[in-house]
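look at this:
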Amino acid sequence: MNIDQKGFEVKGLSYIIRSADPADAAKLSQLRLQIDGETENMDRVQGEGVIDTSSFEQLIARDTEDNRNLFLVAEAEGKIVAFSRCEGNHLTRFSHKVEFGICAAREYWGFGIGKHLLEQSLAWADANGITKIILYVLETNEKAVQLYKKFGFEIEGVITKDRILSDGNYYNTIVMGRFKL
């Protein structure tokens, strides 16, 4: 599904949030690879689970056609700097919910891009009868946990010793959900 483009200016940075377009596929493939190398908050280390241009094109096309999915990008300074996805399910018993995920280039942290991607996703969900949004976040990503709580997400569970990070230690993943009728 698509949303209308919206512009923002935060701390002198102007950016827009819009629906992804298949023409964004190559940039998204590169950005995802870049972000995987910038933070351990993601599921992958750099080079794992690469999504190539063709696969991104197909994913964006599917998400655009599916009213249970939303693929957004944030564009600043002429480049895509972040993206988010809501992925729904058409099984009757799960049709009320979507799973949310987000990532942003480290250089663009602190400009409210994640917050605005989340706001746009929540507005879309609310307008389309989606009552539950779930997400997974690394327990050490305290800024993200606080942001999600600010928007009504609650901790629903913890997956213990879910990930091994570069320091060789195990870390928990927090399952968070927002339910709104």
User: Anything to note?
Assistant: The chain has a mean pLDDT of 95. The beta strands are 6-10, 13-19, 70-76, 79-88, 97-104, 132-138, 154-164, 170-179.
